[in-house]
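Input set for joint prediction.
Command: fold jointly, output tokens.
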Amino acid sequence: MIKGTAASDGIGIGKILLLEETVLEFTPHAVDDPASEIKRFHSAVNTLVEETTRDAAALRETAGEKEALIMEGHISLLNDPALKGETENLIKAGQCAEEAYSSMCDMFIGIFSSMDDEMMRQRAADVRDIKAGLLRILLGVKQTKVSDAPKGTVLLTKELTPSVTAGIKKGNIVGIITETGGKTSHSAILARALEIPAVLSVPNATSVLKNDQAVIVDGSAGVVIPDPSFDELNEYTEKREKFLRDKAELEKFRGLKTKGADGAEYELVCNIGKPSDAEKVIEFDGEGVGLFRTEFLFMDRSSVPTEEEQFAAYQKAALILKGKPLIIRTLDIGGDKEIPYMGLEKEENPFMGFRAIRYCLKNRELFRTQLRAILRASAFGDIRIMFPLITCVEELREGKAIIEELKKELTLLGITFNKEIPVGIMVETAAAATIADVLAKESAFFSIGTNDLTGYTMSCDRGNSNVAYLYSALQPAVLRMIERTIRCGVEAGIPVGMCGEAAANPKLIPLLISFGLTEFSVSAPSVLRVRKYIAKWSKAEADRVAKKAMSLTTEQEVSSYLATEI
Amino acid sequence: MVQKHFTVKNAQGFHMRPATNFATAMAAHPCSVIIRFNGKEVNAKSPMLIMAACIKVGSEIDVVCDGEGENEALAIAANMIESGFGE
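tokens >
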């Protein structure tokens, strides 16, 4: 068994096809007729552009638009005036096309690989890819064709390049093993887009594993088993079937409304951290966004983002969501984050200190800029505003008063926005849960942030291993906070959602349904799974389980009991 | 010759897609287009050179257009950079 990086879920069993790096060696030779050598170079570039265009079209079919765009990016690199022009200059100076192009590519590969930016280092792989492609054409070398691989093939290669991927026929390639690349590498993204199990960064894979060798690829565990025994084959065949069954089972929930067993409807939305994540919401069949964290806009930079910049980000997310709800949480930041321009001091106890709504209410200009940007974006979708870390009703009132002022300004300026924009709060402090009855009268909605609510209620830092055992949303104290918050919301007639990790916890779901939660906000990849969990429960059944769970006195009892019910 | 100063504000800076789109847009104009950054001059019609310059969010750059269609080229450049490349 060989360990690697688990990069694309699932299990593949098959025979290895080793994609050896084609030998692209050449002997540099002097050129007497630079004009015809430049012609030869141009015709090779044109051939590769044509091939790449075809590959991009193939990728668009199998792996999707994003991957095709990357391939099309190769075309603009091939046509790059600097790369082309400098190559021509070297040819004019007497070098052959192979040597000239290689040395130009190597220069760029060197520059890109030395950058301290992962994205840019990926570009080195792109240049390597076009260099290999062009040399292959210039030298007339034939390529092992992935598209001819028979059913049950496991691809083994140093690095999964887009041009290799373009040849993959989904039904024939059952697994991918590479020597390089991490979970977020291009190889991984391509494998996931193709839904082919993949294990990456397997040390020396191309020398340890052999062509035609039988192999199991466990892309969920990140394990490769060469020459599997009879027992291993049985074990993994079973695992594979289970994986496919579960996946098919979840796929049945795609495109469906989120409903309980009794037909009651719920809202199943997602937590996102940047505008482009909204695309994932659509991809994973989320029904909107229950929490858009806006911190990303403020991090890794030297000054406060402008209103325009923020507006563009919020508008982008709203446009992608096409009218689906988008709850934007205002800045939630404090002394635990180093943001020099914000003048936040290191605090003894940042989680109890000057942060989130507290900071924003004291830094009016920054807060007003963000709220104005959100208001303006509200003309482009179903945007709602949510304040973090509320502990008393004055904070909500003050925040709402600022919004009212801004609305007047925008109206005077004739700028369009949603005049009825709902303003709600995160319930994530013990204080807010305790006065949920008071807050519910003035808040348009609640969203329970179970991560912080658990930490604050249990007075424990989950990162401290000595006290982390206390950190559980199933603690009777936390359950009572959640129950109270939802009940107060229901009594006041406002919707209550949950955007903490607990919203996707199968043990908690019957309790949340029983308490009256109507919106579940989870990570995009969890959407179908949570929809399936919810479908199991009728209100009556959930009530029975909740009643029993709330009568238990320890976290251990609650957890064990709920395990028997799901 | 016309020129304008910018602070790059899209989170990713001039990475693959912005660099490519920018270079493609600039290549459509007959004038020369140069990005001055960090004491260097970069041919803005080449996505490779733009990426190699490693222009990140917060970078201070000047775009200099010289020749036929320089005003139009600069206006388009300004629009792209200031809109954060639609990110």
